[in-house]
């Protein structure tokens, strides 16, 4: 990423007025080994759309190993990184998010987790970087996917729906269209300059995640915020030893609106760079998504119509980050 050291470059990007809310909000915490985990998960998904997971069984070394490898990638020259970009949508990207004009103070790698969907840019990436990087990515994705399926099964248990793999089977399916993203938000010292102080720089603009579920792990730099019911933004305290799980649009649809796909964003930091890694669990492209019959007692209660993930994903890629994509599912 080319970090321009003057204000005009920042003005191109999105500056928002800083909010003066108390520093960090409380986030529900789920201990995966606790017998009541399923109850806490369901309540968190209904009330927040987001929760923190501890005792998840993924070794911390596996996460820090990938983080170090990702940093090695991002510390390369711009020209070297650009060989794996621009994203198609997979590959290396800088500042531009999607293809519809969204900008952020971020550079990233976006990968499809299905080995059969290896895009030209991803091929370039792994050809030009040490094998150890690809291995670290694969190992991490394998471990996070396993944890993610456990969480999805606890959700089914908590909702008392059967079979308990009703959600997780879509992620385990060999055709699952899941993806993985590594984001680096460089520190932006200009934010301390008087003319800009009192304003925030958008690292990744507000949006909901289109898939079923997202699992995020970051370093200890703050930046992640979620939108509360009253429309205000609250900061989430970073914790490099935990995962943060959030409900995606498809899960909101399948639970007929009971689980909330939460709007979130990331702000850049003036002194420390933030590195996050997110696994987005998605179904196969031809999977039909609609409210689960067991959660809708009468047809009239169904809030959403049926769409395939392919249809929804195609529409998402035509939208801007902050668009309300879920309204495409609206029945009325
Ligand atoms: C948001 C969630 C994931 O990061 C992502 C993003 C995708 C992209 O960066 O290519 C999108 C965005 C995300 C939703 C709307 C479209 C597509 C950028 C964008 C403007 C990988 C995803 O699946 O949807």
Query: How many separate structural domains?
Result: 1
Examine the coordinates and then state which fold CATH places here, giving the name of the CATH topology: Jelly Rolls
User: Order of strands in the sheet with the most strands?
Assistant: 2-3-11-8-13-6-5-4
Strand runs, count = 15
List the helices and strands in order.
HEEHEHHEEHHHEEEEEEHEEEEH
Arithmetic mean pLDDT: 92
Euclidean distance between termini CA atoms: 44 Å
CATH first level: which class?
A: Mainly Beta
Backbone structural class: alpha+beta
CA gyration radius, whole angstroms: 19 Å
CATH architecture: Sandwich
Global shape: globular
How much β-strand is present in the residues? 15-25%
The helix tally amounts to 9
The ligands bound in this entry are: gibberellin A4
**Uncertain residue segments:** none
Biggest sheet, open or closed, and with what strands and sense? Answer: 8 strands, mixed
Describe the protein in words.
The model has no long low-confidence stretch (mean pLDDT 92). The chain has helices spanning 7-12, 37-47, 60-74, 78-82, 120-128, 131-159, 168-172, 249-254, 309-317; strands at residues 15-17, 29-31, 50-54, 91-97, 102-112, 179-185, 199-207, 213-218, 224-227, 233-235, 243-247, 264-267, 274-281, 288-289, 307-308. It has 332 residues and is an alpha+beta fold. The protein has a single domain (14-329), classed as Jelly Rolls. A hairpin with a 4-residue loop joins β4 and β5 (102-112). It starts with 6 loop residues before the first helix and ends in a 15-residue tail after the last helix. This is gibberellin 2beta-dioxygenase.
């Amino acid at each position: 990423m080319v970090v321009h050291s003057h204000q005009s470059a920042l003005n191109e990007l999105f500056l928002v007025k800083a909010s003066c809310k108390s520093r960090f909000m409380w986030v529900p915490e789920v201990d995966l080994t606790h017998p009541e985990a399923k109850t806490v998960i369901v309540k968190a998904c209904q009330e927040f759309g987001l929760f923190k997971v501890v005792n998840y069984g993924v070794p911390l070394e596996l996460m820090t190993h990938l983080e170090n490898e990702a940093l090695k990638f991002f510390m390369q020259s711009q020209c070297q990184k650009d060989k794996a970009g621009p994203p198609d949508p997979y590959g290396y990207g800088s500042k531009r998010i999607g293809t519809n004009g969204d900008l952020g103070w971020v550079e990233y790698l976006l990968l499809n987790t299905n080995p059969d969907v290896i895009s030209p840019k991803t091929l370039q990436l792994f050809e030009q970087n040490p094998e150890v990087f690809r291995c670290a990515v694969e190992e991490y994705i394998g471990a996070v996917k396993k944890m993610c399926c456990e969480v999805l099964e606890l959700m089914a248990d908590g909702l008392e729906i059967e079979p308990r793999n009703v959600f997780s089977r879509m992620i385990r399916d060999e055709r699952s269209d899941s993806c993985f993203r590594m984001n680096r938000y460089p520190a932006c010292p200009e934010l301390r300059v008087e003319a800009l102080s009192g304003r925030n720089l958008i690292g990744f603009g507000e949006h909901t995640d289109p898939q079923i579920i997202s699992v995020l792990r970051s370093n200890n730099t703050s930046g992640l915020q979620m939108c509360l019911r009253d429309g205000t933004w609250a900061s989430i305290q970073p914790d490099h030893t935990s995962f943060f799980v959030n409900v995606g649009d498809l899960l909101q649809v399948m639970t007929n609106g009971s689980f909330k796909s939460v709007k979130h964003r990331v702000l850049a930091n003036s002194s420390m760079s933030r590195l996050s890694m997110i696994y987005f669990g998605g179904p196969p492209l031809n999977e039909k998504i609609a409210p689960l019959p067991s959660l809708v007692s009468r047809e009239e209660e169904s809030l959403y119509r049926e769409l395939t993930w392919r249809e929804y994903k195609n529409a998402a890629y035509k939208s801007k980050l902050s668009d309300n994509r879920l309204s495409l599912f609206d029945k009325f």
